Amino acid sequence: MCLSIPAKVESIEGEMAVVSVGGTTYDASLQMVEDIKIGDYVLLHTGFAIQKISEDEALETLKVFEEFEDLNKQLDDEEQSTGKRII
Amino acid sequence: MKYIDEYRDRELVLKLIEQIKKASSKPITLMEVCGGHTMSIQKFGIPSLLPKNIKLVSGPGCPVCVSSRKYIDQSVAYAKLPDVIIATYGDLIRIPGSSSTLDEEKAKGADVRIVYSVLDALKIAQDYPEKRIVFLGIGFETTAPSSAVGVLNAHKQGITNFFLFSSHKIMPPAMTALIDEGVKIDGYIAPGHVSTITGSGIYKDIADIYKLGCVISGFEPVDLLRSILMLIKQLEKGEPKVEIEYSRVVKPEGNIKAQQILDEVFELKDDWWRGLGILPKSGMKIRELYKEYDAELMIPVEVEPTREDKGCLCGEILKGLKNPKNCKLFKKVCTPSDPVGACMVSHEGACNAYYRFNKE
Ligand code: SF4
What we know:
The structure holds two protein chains of two kinds.
Chain A: E1 5-13, E2 16-21, E3 24-29, E4 41-45, E5 48-52, H1 55-82
Chain B: H1 10-23, E1 28-32, H2 35-43, H3 46-49, E2 54-58, H4 63-66, H5 69-80, E3 84-88, H6 102-107, E4 111-114, H7 118-127, E5 132-137, H8 144-157, E6 162-166, H9 172-180, E7 187-190, H10 192-198, H11 204-208, E8 213-216, H12 221-237, E9 242-244, H13 256-265, E10 266-273, E11 277-286, H14 295-298, H15 314-318, H16 342-345, H17 350-357
Parallel strand pairs in B: 1-2, 1-7, 3-4, 3-5, 5-6, 7-8, 8-9
Antiparallel strand pairs in B: 10-11
Helix pairs in contact in B: 1-12, 2-17, 7-8, 8-13
């Protein structure tokens, strides 16, 4: 029941939207969210959109990994060249 | 699928595991308190990826599992009333009550319908004006707002034959009660979808007073591993705090509109939790203003005396003190097709997740 899935808003009529999850469409009430547009991604839970998914934050999360990766590589190189374990 | 596939990336997963290995060699126990996390952790085999010093335990995060057997018994009693239609999420239908299940009552002729949303229950109420529709409202802060919308819409649309039977609960009292009881953990993987509604503020006391880190996590392997890494880093620094890993969905302030809806319809009451007993202000009760939609008040019914199953360890499992494999009945007497306790029926229950995914 706690499961919620990212769904794309396909159309909106009043307080109801049609959203799609990997090809399957569902009705979703927009009563709990504000400023939703066609094309937005929302989190769908028991027939309600409960939050808009932030594209920026999603990209940011994945970007953080790239930075981690660079940092890690630097540290690894340093460890190798100095023979000392850093973290 | 967007927002899913990229968080299952193998490369990223492997990198994170490397970082977790480097980050600490101390023994660390982290608890997840969301049934969805329990399921993902088992499904993706996270424990087998982690180094030996990092242990994950499941907490009281399966709403069906922590609810009382009396709730099922009372739902069964409602189902037996000739003019009642039960509308429920699928999770509840096979949960064993003291002597029956909703499924068994349905087979005997009761009108029990599985709905996907409370809005479907309202539709049934409109289609069958001569019947009373009892909607079984179960779940934490994530699910409770939709039940509240059900009540508000019934009110707006003048529907008088819709009743909510609420077993809704809030998460923080259970998270602190566990620590008060002496359960030893080093941090919480905090529930992502509960926090979508509530925001991150509800865990502040856990970090400030109980000195336990809480990282609000998403549900994909990358999310979970990243949250674990964030918690380990907090521990290494000795700085427990509330952090949001799942920032693409969870805002610090949560979903304010949903919070207002919740507050409009519900007030807090003391409530019983499996394994933890009665916790003050941990359950949600319909306010006086909307009492005509409260099934408990409006449809009095006689409920059989509650009978608990002997040997079921659900209560201990929900506190993270035992795991399903410690239960003598697990896989032998108790299986998803013939379950003894709620923890085996619900997909979010630890016993069910272990049964399906943990093949060790
Ligand atoms: S395996 Fe079955 S009997 Fe054992 S604790 Fe889990 S639900 Fe209860």
